[in-house]
Amino acid sequence: MIELIPAIDIIDGKCVRLSRGDYDSRKVYNENPVEVAKQLEAHGVRRLHVVDLDGAASHHIVNYRILEQIASRTSLIIDFGGGVKSDEDLVIAFENGAQMVTGGSIAVKNPQLFCHWLQMYGSEKIILGADVKDRKIAVNGWKDESTCELFPFLEDYVQKGIRKVICTDIQCDGMLQGPSIALYKEILERNPGLYLIASGGVSNADDIRALEAAGVPAVIFGKALYEGRITMKELEDMLVANDND
To answer: For 141-194, where are the E strands, in sequence order?
Structure first.
């Protein structure tokens, strides 16, 4: 069964969502991300994707205290991203409760450092963030497009030992218009051993089922949950079904 990973994106210490990565489009869903995490855990969620959007824009971790509070007040397995640009940032993330850290911009701008992290911490703890716009990798909280083409970028890192990739199609993210299933299928066809985590565009439970049918191992979703398009009851039912498989 597909692994279900709700997302909590943080700006100014609040749980927000953006549309297509546009910071001006932010919508606050809850003033307290810790309460959101506790509610998700109460409905059976075990894994959480936490993004420090302030960190992504500032080039260093900002909301590590929120990470620490979520980690200390729940038993959720947390993968953390946003603003992890240095050894110090990485240590801060792990020391404040992240079990996994996602590197996106750093993997483009300083591949040597990212590969050092991969060797030091291993492929279970270091996740590659591949944020995509028109098949090119975007960086700096999606504000800038790089010259990196998606498939050579992925294949290079797979050869270097990456096993987990979060791929977000920016055109879909926060739009509630469905995920890029064809893109994910192509990624998996080219990299069959990859633990691909699809992100962006999920609008309802049927989208998650379609990703599962396409063979995608895991999915991140947020806005559909906060907008009530996936109810907590539906989420609970899907998690129970996963446990029974």
So the answer is: 144-149, 164-169
- Containing H/E element for 238? helix 232-244
- Its pTM stands at 0.94
**Annotated catalytic sites, by residue?**
9, 131
User: Quick one: DSSP state of residue 175?
Assistant: S
- Percentage of the chain lying above the pLDDT 70 cut: 96
- Orientation angle between helical segments 33-42 and 64-73, nearest 10 degrees: 30
Given a contact cutoff of 8 angstroms between Cβ atoms, the answer to whether 44 and 193 are in contact is no
Of residues 132, 130, 124, 143, the one with CA closest to residue 197:
130
On whether the CB atoms of residues 183 and 156 are closer than 8 A, the answer is no
- Beta strands per DSSP E along 118-228: 126-133, 136-139, 144-149, 164-169, 195-199, 218-221
Q: Per residue in 139-175, pLDDT tens?
A: 765 556 678 999 999 999 999 999 999 999 887 766 6
- 3-state class of 75 per DSSP? coil
